[in-house]
Amino acid sequence: MSIKKIYLDYASTTPIAGEVKKDIKSVLDNDLFGNSSSLDHDYGSSVSEFIESSRTDVAELINADGDEIIWTSGATEANNLALIGFTEFKMKDRPLKIVSSFIEHKSVIEPLMELKQKGHRVEFITPNHDGYLDPDIISRTLDNGVDLLSCMHINNEVGSTNDIALIGALCRDKGTVFHVDAAQSIGKLLLDVRKNNIDLMSLSAHKVYGPKGVGALFVNHETVGRLKPLIFGGGQERGMRPGTLATHQIAGIASAFRLAKSSMQQDYLHLSKCREIFLESIKDLEGLKINGDSNNTYPGIISLCFPDLNADSLIFAMDDLAVSKGSACATDSDEPSHVLKSMGLSQEEINGTIRVSFGRETSYEDIETASSSLRAASEHLRLISGGTA
Ligand code: PMP
User: Ligand 1 centre from 388 Cα, in Å?
Assistant: First the structure.
């Protein structure tokens, strides 16, 4: 990388916090190399103790019990395990009815398409124009008898935030198992699995200043209990996710979640201020629209739309900023964002959308630079296209 760009892509991933690095290093430096399943000696049992206390740290952030946390490689695996593992464990003599939405992450949509192929009845709800699910539509859908409902908390492309408490109450009332993809919201918004009637919840470390390659699935022991594993092998994670556990990665997620617990409020205030300053300084930009509903949005993610400009050209022109068009998990695909499409945006609006996402280390100076850069780039593109960009 030649010039150091200002990083405004925190929704794609975050840098590892200093304290988290220290905690990971301490595992690597302190001979915690034993296999947590080798309980016949101290090398293994000390690691096992460490892993169980890390499990409790993760559980405490969401008001779960330690034995409700299954370690995974991230939220992608957690989503797959939740949806496929639940369906295949529950399925007895009939296909299951599963409801989700078109705005979900691919790691929810793709396993559901797989389940549909296998004969399950899968239905996707269309979100409203602001990118969240209408509880009235969910309520009506659940009336028809639904086994499992899966929805995200914060959307990764536009920041729209579903009313998890309300949806959870509807699911509990109708006897539907409720899965939440909390990859973008864990450690950023309060998420109490008991108060919100959540049965399964997918978590990731790297969106909240932890390492990549580690996450967890919350499995409510009262309402779900067991899942069919995706892979087969040893009896780790009560047979639901076999394989030797990665102690240093688990140290990383536990540390990141402890840190998030203590800094959540301060982070939220900081991001709200960043958002306010940024939106104020760009509000007069020609042709600019903000995708989604500003009142019902996580402040760290802003989806900016210039329907008469091209997002690739805009990103190229802002050579001092690291921003993206949307989901990092879809950059291999030439297809337009399925999230923006499901919100009813036109092709021009989708082509002209970029995502800016702030984090703990974003400074007000960065925001100023970002807004000047966006202004200069959008004006330049308009100029070179002779006003018909
Ligand atoms: N769900 C959402 C909403 C996400 O934003 C992401 C990451 N982009 C994932 C799931 C997948 O998470 P992970 O990278 O931990 O596999």
Answer: 37
d(CA 304, CA 291): 6
Q: In whole angstroms, what is the distance from residue 1 CA to residue 155 CA? A: 29
Range of the domain at 207: 18-258
Strands 6-7 and 321-322: parallel
Helix, strand or coil for residue 277? helix
Residue type, 222: E
* Cβ contact 157:326 at 8 Å: yes
Cβ-proximal residues to 51 (8 Å cutoff; 6+ apart), any chain: 36, 245, 247, 250
Share of the chain above pLDDT 90, in %: 90
Contact predicate 305/344, CB 8 Å: no
Domain of residue 344, CATH code: 3.90.1150.10
* pTM (global) more than 0.90: yes
SS3 state of residue 150: strand
Distance 243 CA to ligand 1 centre (A): 22
Q: Based on the domain organization, do 220 and 85 belong to the same domain? A: yes
Question: Do residues 235 and 277 both lie within one domain?
Answer: no
pLDDT tens digits along 330-371: 555 667 899 999 999 999 999 999 999 999 999 999 999 999
Q: Is 378 in the pocket of ligand 1 (CB under 6 A)?
A: no
Residue whose CB lies within 8 A of the most ligand 1 atoms, among 14, 207, 230, 332, for a mutation test = 207
Q: Is the pLDDT of residue 21 over 80?
A: yes
Examine the domain organization and report whether 167 and 304 are in the same domain: no
pLDDT at 94 over 80: yes
Residue 1 falls inside a structural domain:
no
- Confirm or reject: Cβ of 8 under 6 Å from ligand 1: no
Residue 150's beta-bridge partner residues?
179
Tokens 């004006």 correspond to 379
105 close to ligand 1 (CB < 6 Angstrom): yes
What is the spatial distance between Cα 346 and Cα 20, in angstroms, rounded to a whole number?
42
150 lines ligand 1 (CB under 6 A): no
**Which residues does the annotation mark as catalytic?**
329
Determine the average pLDDT of the residues in 29-39.
91
Q: Alpha helices, DSSP H only, in 283-332?
A: 311-317
Tokens standing for residue 231: 């892979």
For residue 46, report the distance from its CA to the centre of ligand 1, in Å. 31
Give the DSSP H or E segment for 321. Answer: strand 321-322
